[in-house]
Amino acid sequence: MDGNSLKWYPGHIAKARRKIREQLSKINILVEVLDARAPISSDSGIFNKIQGKQIIYVVNKCDLIEDSYLKEIKKHFSGNKDVIFLSAKRSKNMKEILNRIKTYSKGKTSNLSKFGFKNTIVHVMIAGMPNVGKTEIIKKISGRKKLQVANRPGVTRNQQWISFENIRIMDTPGVLYPDFEDDDVVKKLAFLNIVDPARIGYEIVFEFIYNNLSQLERNIICENYRILETDIEFEIFLEKISEKTGIKGNENIASRVFSDYNKGCFKQIVMDRLNEDKS
Ligand SMILES: Nc1nc2c(ncn2[C@@H]2O[C@H](COP(=O)(O)OP(=O)(O)O)[C@@H](O)[C@H]2O)c(=O)[nH]1
Ligand SMILES: [Mg+2]
């Protein structure tokens, strides 16, 4: 990629990472949210070297993948991480995250109550890359409908506490890894809206994604736009989508495909191929 590629790691993300670290001493349970379509590449690593705290990984947006891939992710993580699978948008499996927080906080609160502390509050921090659904998850488990979510990175700009029952949850702005140098990973994350695709260019990102799809995956997109030809070059492919949708201009056409992908039109297409990672 050209010299512009560093623009996707803006200063406010470095600040967000620093602020998360500053708060850690107050927190009992850490939750990192991952995107189910890229459960490895969407790990920000923010809690990697932390010891002595309970860390829960939440694989969110499971409604955007197929059951067979969900099984693969479960197998991939089995045994090494404390992982929960859910879809915040569809309110699927939300109880499990609350149950897990309550289970982990039980030991803590009963210990403190021995020393006369009443109504002990459990402090939970939710972190992860931008746009993975951190705020949506907090909305669903807290019942706070007014929290702001948006399908673009960078909406939660400041840390905020949300309290309910005996739980205080800190929502945090999205973070990326600090040594983010692999342009291919950046493009994958841009296709998921984790890195703002407009910063790189929709067409540039989509060309990379398209060129890395299998024939089967290309066919899935073709079918969605009722394109009969298969095995076509990227440029021709954009022209065909334009013919079928009436959208003009390569940026706009690519942007439409992004939006359809993020609505769940191509659930078979995921950004991390787990079987290949093992080889
Ligand atoms: N399809 C799908 N979309 C989700 C899910 N959870 C969150 N979203 C959407 O993803 C976008 C980002 O959510 P948000 O909570 O603002 O992400 P944050 O930046 O991590 O706080 C919003 O458009 C949400 O509605 C989910 O489980 N499935
Ligand atoms: Mg947010």
In short:
The protein has eleven helices and six strands. It is α/β, with parallel strands linked by helices and 279 residues long.
How would you describe this structure to a colleague?
- With 279 residues, this protein is an alpha/beta fold.
- It folds into two domains: 3-171, P-loop containing nucleotide triphosphate hydrolases (Rossmann fold); 201-270, no CATH class.
- It has eleven helices and six strands.
- It has helices at 11-23, 67-77, 94-114, 134-142, 183-191, 197-200, 202-211, 215-224, 234-245, 250-263, 274-278; strands spanning 29-35, 54-60, 83-85, 122-128, 160-164, 167-171.
- The protein has a six-stranded mixed sheet with strand order 3-2-1-4-6-5, sandwiched between helices.
- Helix 5 crosses helix 7.
- The protein is elongated.
- Mean pLDDT is 87; it is low at 1-6.
- The structure holds guanosine-5'-diphosphate and magnesium ion.
- Magnesium ion binds at residues 134-135, 155-156, 171.
The averaged pLDDT comes out at: 87
Structural class: alpha/beta
User: Which small compounds were modeled alongside the protein?
Assistant: guanosine-5'-diphosphate, magnesium ion
Enumerate the strands of the largest sheet in spatial order, edge to edge or round the barrel.
3-2-1-4-6-5
What is the number of independent domains? 2
Distance between the termini: 27 Å
The gross shape turns out to be elongated
The residue ranges in which pLDDT falls below 50 over 5 or more consecutive positions are 1-6
Query: Could you state the CATH homologous superfamily of the largest domain?
Result: P-loop containing nucleotide triphosphate hydrolases
Number of strands: 6
Number of helices in the DSSP assignment: 11
The radius of gyration is 20 Å
